[in-house]
Amino acid sequence: MIANPAPSPTAARQWFLARSDLDALIQALRKSGRTVIGPTVRDGAIVNDEIASASDLPSGIRDEQAAGRYRLADRSDERVFGYTVGPTPWKRFTFPPNLEISTAHMSGGFGFEEPHIVVPELAFLGVRACEIAALAMQDRVFLGSPFTDEDFRARRKAALIVAVQCTTSSSTCFCSSMGTGPEVRSGYDILLTEIDDGFVVQAGSPVGAAIVAQVPTRRPTHAETGAAVDVVEAVRTQIGEPLPIAGIDQRLQHQLDNPRWALVGERCVECGNCTMSCPTCFCTAVTERSDMEGKSSVTERMWDSCFDVNFAKVAGGDFRARPRDRYRQWLTHKFSTWMDQFGSFGCVGCGRCITWCPVRIDVREELLAIAPIIQPIERPVAVEPVAASPGDFSIARLASVREETDDTTTLSLTDLDPAFLAGRPGQFVMVALPAFPAVPISISRFHATGIDLTIRAVGATSTALVNLHPGAKVGVRGPLGTFWPIEDAYGRHAVVVAGGVGLSPLHGLVEALVANRDRFESVSLYYGSRTPEDQLFRDDLVAWSAGKAIDVAVTVDRAGPEWKGRVGVVTTLFDMMACDCSRITAFVVGPERMMQASVQSLISKGVPPERIYVSMERHMECGIGLCGHCQTGPYFVCKDGPVFSLSELGDLYVREGI
Amino acid sequence: MASTGKAVRPRVAVAKFASCDGCQLTILDLEEHLLEIVSRFDIVEFPEATSRHSPGPYDVVFVEGSISAPDHLDQIKALRKQARLLVTIGACATAGGIQALRNWADHDAFRATVYEHPDWIESLSTATPVSDHVKVDAELRGCPIDPGQLLELMTAVIVGRRPQIRDEAVCRECKRRGIVCMVVATGQACMGPVTTSGCNALCPSYGRGCYGCFGPRSAANARSWSADLLRSGRPPEEVWRLFAGFTAYAEPSRAVLTELGKTKP
Question: How many beta-carbon pairs under 8 angstroms link A with B?
Fold first, then answer.
């Protein structure tokens, strides 16, 4: 019976049914002409089967469930619903495993006949919240399109639902993650909540109310109705924190090439027990049974499984030839494409696919490993930049000029607006001179009285800047953009990877790491440059190294015989990482190719992508998200970056031509 | 081979090699269908049923038994030449049968242990499935075969279509029948997940794990299943025995046994 949503439990009329009178309810259901299907113990499990009386119910029995394991045990009380869902999905009775769907007659003409639909009047006793949700999901599948399954409709209509609130949970339960339970809220004719001596009863339909009226009940006490509410709330607590399911339908679509599919494909034995046990899986195969006389043929539909090796086969080949393809099909259908087709997930969180998997694959583990939620690192809000329109610059004074290398110079600016001093390492400023286009320059150091800009002379503006003399005036707008989230490395291994002039935007970060050394498990700097002469901040490198507070490793691409250090690209230094790489937070800047290689190496070592930060260099004319030059995917690098975590960038970072 | 009436009944021969005759008996066990079968098929050669012999060619030859003796090698080739359709029936013919366990053992030592005059015994050192020697058009699995599948195959021959024989795990039949999985609920060993269906989950319906007599299905992940049996605490000898049944010599069971026993057949 497809019942209307029940009114809220507090408003609905409630009764108390003593446990000793439960049989009266079962007999009333039977007297109404219905066969009662309910929980009963058979072959070491609580299955749903025909119930003649309350003595058939599993009194004082509980179940223990885990991946690939189901056992019964005794309870210390007489409860008859003190367990969770067993191996039998209710679809068995609304969507039978084998069904004749047509007959063909070949003698005396030729024709197909659909069987006359005759379905039994059933009462489902003990339907849980997740199972009500599953029935509703199959409603959408079988009745929600112009093509309907009339056999299903008839069976569904002929089934009266006696729901039961869960008063316990299994380790395999995750209804609260899927939003289907543990509370039964609607979709029932009668609802039972089992408490110490009996049941708090509610009716969800006139038919249900009429049945309840035939059963000896009394008005429940406040204590009883309160206990009925508390017991379900306790189950929610028992199930624990919901899984991060929100958005997983989208996340899965970005993980179709995840290597985990192959790993789970190697474990999966493709028995199909997950799909057979699943209360929502609806795939079927059709077979013919013809007689040898050639007079008639019966077409039978049976439960099929997308794990079947022939499931996606055509004459020319198999669209899902590998186990990984078939596992991916199942999981993505349940948690992603079902949403597109039917407007919900195809999973209710009953956990049957976990319990009844003989090789103990836990769909929750696979799901979260394949499509993990990326916890965005909360970053402090940047200060409001000084001069925030394209034509506006504040004036700073050049305090000193220092040559770092042949082509790179550090300018110290002073007389700045205090907002500049509140900036953080990783941010940049737009620098302008009259008649020269403004250029983005990262801040390499914060002083008490100003900031340093370390500039490589590559264009007209940068060349003009490095040729200035102390005392000159410079136009600056800033501080702009995102900064290094140093807090994300607290308690972890902080790893700084710099290539060439890329040490400039990292210099301030390293100083901050050194100043707060106690907050980090370790601090390491890996620095590669073309030649020893191209190294920036040589004095600082020596000082950091000598201080032993941090590990400094340098390498050069090429060097003369006087160079006693390492030669090779910066990633060759990564062999020195002796720590647990999953506990690294990395900060990477350098030439594009060096960054790509470094990032890939870090990921392969197990550094989480959401904890690898890069600073992107892009063409910028304004620095405040208006000129459009720096747009990369959904981001303006100037204001959404330049510092991004790799998980924020995703494919953008490795895909060509973005 | 579409039916055009009783006048052109296909000529059928049943042949046996190394086997127990149980599959031939399954044909005779189709009691209620026997009259229909003989009205549709001309059974001209059937050692379990009649001493009558009739030379080929035959439309359909059902072959029981594995190739285990030197004579078999020529006999099966000759039979193939006489057969329009050659159908192997049972675990012996399709997988080598229980006797294929000798493929992992010392054949001479076996002979010497069992027979007083081992030199009188002419047998091959291996028992192999028919398909190792000649082309096979269809096979019916099981020890013995399933009467329903046999009837379906015979019907398909008459109707002129492919027999509808599913390539799926025994687990599917358990689930459709509502049989509680004993692997999960009791911890019993069962070969169902890697075994071809067709028996309608006969053993599990009696509370006994599947013996695997229908043999591994085409996509059987025997490696994962054996690894899981080991992981659940079963000693390697027990896992070896689970795979070393009626269809031990069929891949991928053969590969699992070779790996477990560290020996090649």
Answer: 125
Using CA atoms, how far apart are residues A636 and A14, in angstroms rounded to an integer?
59
Q: Which helix (H) or strand (E) holds B183?
A: helix B182-185
- Closest partner residue to B186 (CB to CB) among A44, A269, A294 is A44
| Predicted TM-score of the model (pTM) | 0.73
Dist CA A327 CA A320 (whole Å): 9
Hunting for tokens 């060759």 — which residue is that? A572
Residues of chain B contacting A92 with CB distance shorter than 8 Å: 178
Q: Nearest 5°: CA angle at A508, between A629 and A541?
A: 120
Domains and CATH numbers, chain A: 14-239 (no CATH), 250-370 (no CATH), 394-480 (2.40.30.10), 489-615 (3.40.50.80)
By Cβ distance, the residue of A45, A98, A292 closest to B180 is A45
CA distance B3 to chain A (A): 8
Cβ-defined contact of B225 to A269 (cutoff 8 Å): yes
Q: Which of A47, A69, A272 minimises the CB distance to B180? A: A47
> Could you give the C-alpha distances from A415 to A420, A465, A605, in angstroms and in order?
10, 17, 45
State chain B's mean pLDDT as an integer: 92
Q: Which of A447, A405, A642, A375 is closest to A535 using CA atoms?
A: A405
This complex has an ipTM of: 0.93
Nearest Cα residue in chain B from A359: B228
Domain boundary pick from B132, B159, B186: B159
Q: If you measure CA to CA, which chain B residue comes closest to A271?
A: B193
Give the domain range for residue B97.
Answer: 6-159
Q: Determine whether the interchain pair A68/B184 forms a contact, defined as Cβ–Cβ distance below 8 Å.
A: yes
Question: Which pLDDT score is estimated for A658?
Answer: 54
Calpha distance A43→B181 (Å, rounded): 9
Provide DSSP, A84-131.
Answer: ---S--THHHHS-SEEEEEEEE-SSS-EEEPPP-----EEEEEE-HHH
Element (H, E) at A235: helix A222-239
β-strands A61-66, A69-74 pairing: antiparallel
Please indicate, yes or no, if residue B49 is contained in any of the structural domains: yes
Q: Which two tokens stand for residue B52?
A: 């009558």
Lowest mean pLDDT among A437-441, A611-615, B180-184: A437-441
